[in-house]
Amino acid sequence: MLTLPEDWRQCTAGTSARAILSQADDLREYRTAARLRTRACFELLRDSFWGSVVEGGPHILFAERFIRINDFVFLIADAADDAVLEQATHLARTAHEVEVLAPPGTQTLIKEALNSLRASRVTVKPLDDDVDLRALFTGMDTGTDRTAVLSDLLLRYSKLCEDNDVLHLAVSPAGLHPLPIEQLRRNLRRIAPRPMDAPEASSAVTLVKRRDDPINLDTSRRIAKQTC
Predict the structure, then answer these.
(1) Read out DSSP for 48-77?
(2) CA distance 190 to 187
(3) Integer distance in angstroms from the first to the last C-alpha of the chain?
(4) Sheet strand arrangement including 60-62
(5) Residue 69, CA distances (Å) to 74, 87, 156 in order
C-alpha cells in the first residue's frame, strides 16, 4: 500500500493527492492512481451534492482516460506528450468543453502546446489543484469540515483500488471514516433554493445542467471506445 504523511489530517486533499500520485508514478502506475483519485472526487460530488439539488442528477460516464459529465469532458493526462494533445483536440470536436487534468508540474507545457495547436474549448488544470478545489467546494456545500471530506475521499479511493485489483495503490491510515451521505443529502434538500425563489442560484449547478443538443450517453460511449 501507499503511505501518507503522518499528519495527513492537517493536509489538504491536493497534498494527499500529490503524495499518492508521486508514489504511483515511481511504480509506473500514475495513470491508474490518477484516474481512481479523480473518480473518487466526482463520486462524492454525485452522491452528496448533485443528487440533492439537480433533478435526476447529471449523466456521468467514467471511462479509462476521461470522465464525461453531460457534455463536459475531464481528460486525465498521464504525461505531457503527443497522445494527450491528440486526445484533447479529438474530444473538443464533440464536447462543449474539455478540461485536461495535468500531472503536477506539467500544466504550463501542455497548455502552451494546446495553444500552438489553436485548440478551442480546452483548458488545463493540475490534477492536484482540481482535487483540492472539488474537496473544498464539497465541504462548503455540505457544511462538512476539511478532514471529514478528505477521510471520505481516501476511503473512496482505496475502495476503487480494491475494486480494480490494484490494492497496492490504496492507502490505509488510521482514523478514516465515511461521510454520512444520506444526512448530508437531507440537509441539502432543505436548504437548496428553488428556481422561482432564487433564479440566480442556478449558476451553481451550470456544470451538470442538461443541454438540448445532440450530445448524449450513446455518443459518450462511442467516444470512450475510440479514445481508451
Answers:
(1) IIIHHHSTT---EEE-SSEEEETTEEEEE-
(2) 5
(3) 27
(4) 60-62, 66-69, 72-76, 97-102, 122-126
(5) 8, 17, 19
Q: Residue 211: is its pLDDT beyond 50?
A: no
The three cell numbers locating residue 76: 486525465
pLDDT in tens, 52-71: 445 556 677 888 888 888 88
Query: Kind of pairing, strands 66-69 and 72-76?
Result: antiparallel
- Cβ atoms of 85 and 110 within 8 Å: the answer is yes
Question: Pairing state of beta strands 122-126 and 97-102?
Answer: parallel
Q: Go through 91-103 and write b for each residue having 16 or more CB atoms within 10 A of its CB, e for each that does not.
A: bbebbeebbbbbb
CB of 121 within 8 A of CB of 96?
Answer: yes
Contact 110, 102 (CB under 8 A): yes
The C-alpha cell at 162 is: 480494491
- Alpha helix stretches (DSSP H) within the chain: 13-26, 30-45, 51-53, 82-92, 107-116, 127-142, 146-163, 181-191, 217-227
Q: What angle do CA 169, 25, 98 make, to 5 degrees?
A: 95
Distance CA 177, CA 175 (A): 6
- Which band of pLDDT confidence, cut at 50, 70 and 90, is reported for residue 181? low
Bridge partners (DSSP) of residue 66 are: 75
